[in-house]
DNA sequence: TAGTTTTAAGTTTTT
DNA sequence: CTTAAAACTA
C-alpha cells in the first residue's frame, strides 16, 4: 500500500525516500548519499522523506534534524514538508550556523562562553584584529582575518601543525592565538566558532554528545557539496551509533570553495561514513536536453568529479545560442532586444528572463540599458543592507547594550558623532577594563565591562572627553530604559522557524508554539510608518523592540550624524535606519528580544525583495551566477563569457574546476532557452580592453551551440556567419589592438578594432612629431589615419588623427 | 583631532 | 569609472 504522496515520485526518488538505513540481516545503520543532479527534484525528495519518516516510520518529528546552508532553503523545506504532514513543523530545520548558535547558547558555558554572546561578522573580525595589529595596513589585516576564518572552516586551531596549509606566514599562529584570546575575553563568537566550538564541546564532553545522540535519530543535510571540514566534523560528532544520516548534494554544483567548502566531503562520503549507500537522481525535470548537454560538456572537463549523466525528461528543445558581440554596450542591447522581442510576441513575460553575470559590477550596463528602454528589472543580491555604515553603527549600539565587554562595538560608536573622546580616551577606558587580568572563563565579570571601566576613570578624564563619554553612556541608558525587565531564563534557546514572509513561529523546548504575525504586528501600531525618503524629522517608533532601537539611534546622535553628514544620502540613510527599527518591532522589548533580534540579523541577511511595482509581466532578474543556485528561469542569458571574466584569468587547477562548476550551475538554471554572450572588448576600470572568448566556449560541445556574430581575431573560421555589414560611416574616436604579435610597435598588417568601424588592418606607418601615425583600412571600406596616443601592457590605444 | 586631498586598487560570499 | 584607504593639512 503506497501512500499517495509517494506516487508522484520516480523510482529513484522513491527509493531515496524509502531508504531507512536499516538493512536485512544487519544491525548497522547505513548512511545515505543522494547524488541529486540539477533539477532532479531533490527538495521534493527531502521533504517527502521527512514526512514519510514521521507518518510511516513513527519517527518523532522532534528527533529529526535537517540542516541547510541558507535560511531560505530552511524555510522552503519546512513549508513543503508541512504540506504533506503538519507534524514536520516540529522537526528542527535550521542552517548549520543557526544550529551552532542554538547549541552554543545552551552549551557554550562548557567552553567558557556565556549565553549572551553576539555573533561577529567578517567585518567585525577584521575590526577586532586591527585592534591587535594596529600598525599593519588594512589590506594585510583583512588577509589575516580571512586566513583565520578559513582555518576555522578547516577545523584548525592555532596550535594545529596543519595550520601552515592555510597560511605559512611565521607570525600567523601568533595572530590567530591573540585573536582567539581577545574574542574569548570579549565573550563573543565569529561565524567559524558557531561550527568549530560545538564540535569541541561534543568531543570533550561525552555526556553532552550522548544527549544529542539521544535527541536526534535522523540527520538530513542539504547541499552537502558546500559543507566545509568543520561542518563534516560536526556531523560526525552528532551521529551516534543509532543515528541515521542522509546527505543530499551534487558535486558538480560545489561553488563555495573560496569560503572553505570542501568538495571532497561529498566525493569521499562513502569512505568517511562506513556502509553508505548511494542513490543517483539523474532525471532532470527542468531543462531541454541541449541545455543539459551543453552544461555537461563543459563540466565534464573536470577531473575531480563523481560523474553522472543527466537525462532530460522534457526532451529536445531549442539549441542554446552563443552571441559574439563587439562590446558590453552591444551586449546590453542584445539582451534588451531579445527580451523585448519575446515579450512583444507574447512568447514570454519579463519574469521568464534572467541575466546572469560573474561579478556584480557587470550589472550596471544592463541596468542603464533597461532603464532607458523601460524594461522592468530587479537586481538580486547586491543590496548589502547590513553592511551599510549607518546600520552597522546602530547594530554596534545594540550589541554593546547586550554585551558591555564588546570593545569592537564600543570603539565604533563611542565617538560617533565626534564628542571629543578620541583614541587616547578610548584606549584609556579599554586599558582600565582589561585591568591586566585575564577574565575567569564562564562568568561575565565586571572587570571586563567597559561601562564600569569608563565610570571608574571618568573623574580623571579631561572635561571635554568626560562630557563626551558621559553623553554616550547616557544615550545607552536611554535605550536600556525602553526594555522591560523579565525573568532571565525565558528566551535564548527558542527554536525559531520562519515559515513565510508574514508568519513567524517560535516553539520552545516543550513545543509550546507561539505565532507572530508580522502584518498584524505592523498594523497594530495604528500608525502609517514613514517609508524611505520621508521628510519627517526623527524616526517613528513602532511597537515591541522598535522604540528601544529608535531611542538609541536618536539619543546617541547616530541618526543626526547620518542625516546631516551628507545631504544626498542622508534621507536614504535615515530611511535605512527606520527600516531597521521597523524590523525590530516583531521582537519583544526585552534583553532576550534584543539578543534574538541581533542573532536573527547576523544569521539571516537575506532581504525580501520589494516587488511592489511589479506588473503582470513581472521583472527581469539581474543576478550573479553564484546567487542563482537553487533557482530556475524559463530563459537565461549568461553574459561576459570571456577569458579573464569567466573564468577569471588567475584561476588554475582546482579553482578553474570550480569556475567550470559555476558555469554548469548557471547554464542548468535555464528551463527553455539559454543564451551566452561574449564580447570582443570590454571597458574595465575606465579603460577598454580587448577580450578573448572564454576557455569554456572552446570546451563546449558545438553540436548543441548555435553561434551568431563575429568572434574576435584568432577565433574565426568555424564557419560562422558574418555580421559586419551596416555600420555607419565617419571615423571618430579611437582604435585598439591586442598586443600579441610584437612588442607594441606597429607593423603593416596589424589588425585593430574600432567602436564604430569594426575590424581593420594597418596599411601604412609613418613617424610624426607626436609619435607614430598609422593608416587603417576598415572592413567597412573606410580608410583613415590615427595618431598613437599611448601604450601600456596588453593593448595599444590609438587616437584619431584629426 | 577632524576633515580634506591624493593615491591605489578593483571576485564570487548562502552564514 | 568608482570606491576605499593612506597621507596630508588646518
Summarize model confidence as the mean pLDDT.
83
Low-confidence stretches: 436-446, 489-536, 717-732, 789-802
- The total of helices stands at 28
- Largest β-sheet summary: 7 strands, parallel
Class computed from helices, strands and strand pairing: alpha/beta
User: How many individual β-strands?
Assistant: 30
Distance between the termini: 86 Å
Strand order of the largest sheet: 15-19-14-20-21-13-24
Q: How much strand?
A: 15-25%
Molecular shape: globular
Q: Calculate Rg over CA atoms.
A: 30 Å
Could you please describe the fold and organization of this structure?
- The chain is of the alpha/beta class and 802 residues long.
- Helices cover 39% and strands 18% of the residues.
- The strands form eight sheets. Strands 15-19-14-20-21-13-24 form a seven-stranded parallel sheet, covered by helices on one side.
- Strand 26 (751-754) and strand 27 form a beta hairpin.
- Helix 6 packs across helix 7, helix 9 packs parallel to helix 11 (229-238) and helix 24 runs antiparallel to helix 25.
- The longest helix has 19 residues, at 463-481.
- The protein is globular and about 85 Å long.
- Mean pLDDT is 83; it is low at 436-446, 489-536, 717-732 and 789-802.
- It binds a DNA duplex (15 and 10 nucleotides) through helix 4 and helix 5.
Amino acid at each position: 500500500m503506497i501512500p499517495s504522496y509517494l506516487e508522484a515520485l520516480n523510482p529513484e526518488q522513491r527509493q531515496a525516500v524509502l531508504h531507512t538505513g536499516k538493512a536485512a540481516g544487519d544491525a548497522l545503520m547505513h548512511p545515505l548519499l543522494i547524488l541529486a543532479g540539477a533539477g532532479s527534484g531533490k527538495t521534493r525528495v527531502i521533504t517527502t522523506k521527512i514526512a514519510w519518516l514521521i507518518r510511516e516510520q513513527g519517527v518523532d518529528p522532534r528527533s529529526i534534524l535537517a540542516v541547510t546552508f541558507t535560511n531560505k532553503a530552511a524555510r522552503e523545506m519546512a513549508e513543503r514538508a508541512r504540506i504533506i504532514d503538519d507534524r514536520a513543523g516540529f522537526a528542527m530545520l535550521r542552517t548549520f550556523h543557526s544550529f551552532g548558535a542554538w547549541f552554543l547558547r545552551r552549551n557554550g558555558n562548557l567552553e567558557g562562553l556565556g549565553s549572551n554572546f553576539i555573533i561577529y561578522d567578517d567585518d567585525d573580525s577584521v575590526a577586532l584584529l586591527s585592534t591587535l595589529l594596529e600598525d599593519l595596513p588594512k589590506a594585510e589585516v583583512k588577509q589575516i582575518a580571512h586566513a583565520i576564518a578559513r582555518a576555522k572552516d578547516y577545523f584548525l586551531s592555532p596550535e594545529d601543525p596543519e595550520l601552515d596549509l592555510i597560511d605559512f606566514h611565521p607570525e600567523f599562529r601568533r595572530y590567530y592565538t591573540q585573536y582567539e584570546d581577545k574574542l574569548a575575553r570579549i565573550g563573543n563568537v565569529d561565524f567559524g566558532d558557531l561550527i568549530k566550538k560545538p564540535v569541541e564541546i561534543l568531543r570533550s564532553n561525552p555526556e553532552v554528545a550522548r544527549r544529542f545522540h539521544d535527541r536526534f535519530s535522523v540527520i538530513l543535510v542539504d547541499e552537502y557539496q558546500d559543507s566545509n571540514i568543520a561542518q563534516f566534523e560536526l556531523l560526525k560528532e552528532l551521529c551516534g551509533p543509532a543515528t541515521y544520516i542522509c546527505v543530499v548534494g551534487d558535486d558538480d554544483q560545489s561553488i563555495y570553495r573560496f569560503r572553505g567548502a570542501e568538495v571532497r566531503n561529498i566525493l569521499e562520503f562513502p569512505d568517511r561514513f562506513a556502509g553508505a549507500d548511494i542513490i543517483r537522481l539523474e532525471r532532470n525535470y527542468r531543462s531541454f536536453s541541449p541545455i543539459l548537454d551543453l552544461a555537461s560538456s563543459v563540466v565534464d572537463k573536470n577531473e575531480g568529479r563523481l560523474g553522472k549523466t543527466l537525462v532530460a525528461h522534457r526532451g529536445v528543445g531549442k539549441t542554446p545560442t552563443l552571441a559574439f558581440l563587439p562590446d558590453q554596450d552591444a551586449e546590453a542591447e542584445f539582451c534588451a532586444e531579445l527580451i523585448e522581442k519575446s515579450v512583444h510576441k507574447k512568447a514570454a513575460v519579463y519574469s521568464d528572463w534572467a541575466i546572469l553575470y560573474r561579478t556584480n559590477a557587470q550589472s550596471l550596463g544592463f541596468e542603464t540599458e533597461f532603464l532607458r528602454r523601460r524594461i522592468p528589472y530587479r537586481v538580486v543580491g547586491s543590496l548589502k543592507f547590513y553592511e551599510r555604515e549607518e546600520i552597522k553603527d546602530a547594530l554596534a549600539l545594540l550589541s554593546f547594550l547586550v554585551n558591555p565587554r564588546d570593545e569592537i562595538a564600543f570603539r565604533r560608536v563611542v565617538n560617533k558623532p565626534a564628542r571629543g573622546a578620541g583614541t587616547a580616551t578610548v584606549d584609556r577606558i579599554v586599558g582600565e577594563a582589561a585591568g591586566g587580568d585575564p577574565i575567569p572563563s564562564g562568568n561575565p565579570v565586571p572587570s571586563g565591562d567597559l561601562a564600569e571601566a569608563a565610570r571608574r576613570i571618568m573623574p580623571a578624564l579631561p572635561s571635554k572627553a568626560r562630557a563626551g563619554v558621559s553623553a554616550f553612556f547616557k544615550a545607552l541608558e536611554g535605550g536600556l530604559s525602553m526594555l522591560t525587565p523579565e525573568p532571565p531564563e525565558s528566551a535564548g534557546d527558542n527554536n525559531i522557524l520562519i515559515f513565510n514572509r508574514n508568519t513567524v513561529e517560535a516553539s520552545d523546548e516543550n513545543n509550546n508554539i507561539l505565532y507572530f504575525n508580522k502584518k498584524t504586528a505592523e498594523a497594530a501600531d495604528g500608525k502609517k510608518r514613514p517609508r524611505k525618503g520621508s521628510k519627517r524629522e526623527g524616526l517613528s517608533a513602532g511597537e515591541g523592540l522598535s522604540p528601544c532601537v529608535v531611542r538609541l539611534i536618536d539619543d546617541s546622535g547616530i541618526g543626526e550624524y547620518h542625516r546631516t553628514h551628507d545631504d544626498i544620502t542622508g534621507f536614504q540613510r535615515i530611511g535605512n535606519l527606520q527600516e531597521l527599527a521597523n524590523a525590530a518591532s516583531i521582537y519583544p522589548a526585552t534583553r532576550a528580544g534584543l539578543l534574538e533580534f541581533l542573532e536573527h540579523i547576523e544569521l539571516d541577511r537575506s532581504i525580501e525583495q520589494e516587488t511592489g511595482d511589479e506588473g503582470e509581466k513581472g521583472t527581469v532578474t539581474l543576478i550573479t551566477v553564484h546567487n542563482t543556485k537553487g533557482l530556475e528561469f524559463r530563459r537565461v542569458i549568461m553574459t561576459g563569457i570571456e577569458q579573464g571574466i569567466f573564468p577569471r584569468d588567475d584561476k588554475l587547477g582546482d579553482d578553474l574546476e570550480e569556475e567550470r562548476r559555476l558555469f554548469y550551475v548557471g547554464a542548468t538554471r535555464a528551463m527553455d532557452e539559454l543564451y551566452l554572450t561574449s564580447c570582443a572588448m570590454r571597458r574595465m576600470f575606465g579603460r577598454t580592453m580587448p577580450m578573448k572568448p572564454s576557455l569554456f566556449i572552446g570546451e563546449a560541445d558545438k553540436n548543441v551551440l548555435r553561434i551568431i556574430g563575429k568572434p574576435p581575431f584568432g577565433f574565426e573560421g568555424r564557419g560562422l556567419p558574418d555580421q559586419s555589414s551596416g555600420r555607419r560611416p565617419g571615423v571618430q574616436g579611437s582604435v585598439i589592438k591586442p598586443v600579441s604579435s610584437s612588442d607594441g610597435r606597429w607593423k603593416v598588417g596589424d589588425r585593430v578594432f574600432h567602436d564604430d568601424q569594426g575590424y581593420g588592418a594597418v596599411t601604412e606607418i609613418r613617424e610624426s612629431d607626436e609619435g607614430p601615425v598609422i593608416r587603417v583600412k576598415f572592413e567597412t571600406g573606410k580608410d583613415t589615419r590615427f595618431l598613437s596616443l599611448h601604450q601600456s601592457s596588453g593593448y595599444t590605444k590609438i587616437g584619431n588623427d584629426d
